[in-house]
Design brief:
Length: 429
């Protein structure tokens, strides 16, 4: 160290003192602390720390002392974990201040940090050179463009972030409702094409339906959804991440069938060799039901459901494993008791194990359609055990899923309330 006196230095972090030798600071794992070794004047020191005591050679940092204690454990032992009962983002902010990155965390804490940052849409960027007092009066064109893109992105992604976002969300909801009403009405007998039409008549009917009022309404809705998806793709920060998001994939699945059906109608025409074109078109048109999932962008309940499924995928897999194991056991036993043994009474409904699996799943979920049931005494006893075990196996993972659902709901509600406060400030201004 080229500044200060004495063989050792003292770091005072939030009231907790740490003493180090000068040589240790030279190769210290924390970049901010190691920068003290190259300071030549008191002005250089004050750029690194918050205050400096020349007499005691003590450097004061106004930071979280407990968080720095956990960071020092990483310096000594090589393992970095979150502070209990401390926000992950706050601890990550302390890490960035001292010169650490998310990759220094243990794997379990890295996953917690990634989930937390994805939920709150938090991004930590480096300080811009024009962010000082000299650059406040004017902004470069690139900064103005980034600010405009960020405002557009929030308008399309966060329905409660501004008045324009709420208006846009309301219009999008209206289009979804109208498209669903048209889809349901198109299945009525008066709207539906007769089944005895020929392929030529069916293709001609499909082409003419585009010019009908329902076809016009459908085209308008598709145009709106397509324009919305294109704009959101343009203003997105990461194009690859945009394509990988589940809601965006659902949007593409809801929009693409319309254009495929139109292209098939145009190119096939009256080609008699495509005998299944009418069925394919009906399947593609029915895929518009995915538009309902677009409401997840505007309702906390659907967002909570999606976030809960994302976080609890391990519990969901465990639940499916429980059900599959129980199905394999009870279906084999029920087939053996009802049809496999030569007891003079054979139940044809249990002729095979796959057929018995249907009875097992409806019994374990306590649905009990009654389309098939055991008739032998051992089979009925096995059925009672199957029902009771189904109740127990389904109840075991539900507790974890329930607590995760409540936590996700409160987090999304808090996030929505935060954007609502910014919306109220914008309205008052």
């Amino acid at each position: 160290m080229n500044f200060g006196r004495g063989p050792s230095v003292v770091l005072n972090v939030g009231g907790t003192r740490y003493s180090f030798s000068r040589e240790v600071l030279k190769d210290f794992p924390l970049r901010r602390v190691s920068r003290l070794h190259g300071c030549l004047s008191e002005q250089d020191v004050l750029e690194v720390c918050d205050d400096y005591d020349r007499e005691r050679n003590e450097y004061f940092f106004d930071r979280h002392s407990e968080a720095f204690g956990f960071i020092m454990l990483y310096v000594r032992h090589g393992h970095l974990r979150f502070v209990p009962h401390m926000c992950e983002l706050s601890f990550y902010n302390e890490m960035i201040y001292w010169g650490l990155e998310g990759s220094h965390l243990d794997y379990c804490c890295q996953r917690r940090l990634d989930d937390r940052m994805s939920e709150t849409c938090t991004y930590y960027a480096a300080e811009e050179p024009n962010g000082g007092p000299e650059g406040k009066g004017r902004r470069p064109p690139a900064a103005e463009r980034r600010k405009w893109l960020e405002r557009m992105r929030r308008t399309f992604e966060e329905p409660t972030s501004s008045l324009a976002a709420q208006v846009l969300a309301t219009v999008s909801i209206l289009f979804v409702i109208v498209s669903m009403v048209v889809l349901c009405a198109s299945t009525l007998p008066e709207w539906r094409a007769p089944e005895n039409r020929s392929v030529e008549e069916q293709s001609r009917y499909t082409a003419e339906s585009v010019r009908e009022p329902s076809g016009i309404i459908e085209a308008i809705c598709i145009g709106w959804f397509t324009a919305e998806c294109i704009v959101r793709f343009i203003v997105s920060k990461n194009k690859c991440e945009f394509v990988r998001r589940p809601l965006n994939i659902i949007d593409l699945m809801a929009i693409t069938p319309y254009y495929i059906s139109v292209l098939m109608t145009v190119f096939t025409g009256e080609n008699s060799q495509l005998q299944r074109a009418g069925v394919t078109l009906r399947v593609l048109r029915m895929m518009r039901i995915f538009w309902v999932i677009k409401l997840a962008r505007h309702f906390i309940g659907l967002q909570t459901l999606g976030l809960t499924l994302k976080r609890c995928y391990r519990e969901m897999v465990m639940l499916l494993v429980f059900i599959c194991v129980a199905m394999a056991i009870f279906s084999a036993l029920s087939q053996l008791l009802e049809n496999g043994l030569d007891l003079g009474t054979k139940n044809k409904d249990y002729a095979s194990i796959p057929a018995a699996c249907w009875w097992v799943i409806i019994s374990m979920t306590t649905v009990g359609y009654g389309d098939m049931c055991p008739i032998t005494v051992p089979g009925r006893i096995l059925g009672g055990i199957c029902v009771v075990s189904g109740i127990v196996l389904l109840a075991l993972p539900i507790t974890f899923i329930y607590h995760s659902f409540v936590q996700c709901y409160h987090e999304l509600k808090f996030r929505s309330a935060r954007y609502s406060r910014s919306l109220s400030a914008e309205f008052l201004n």
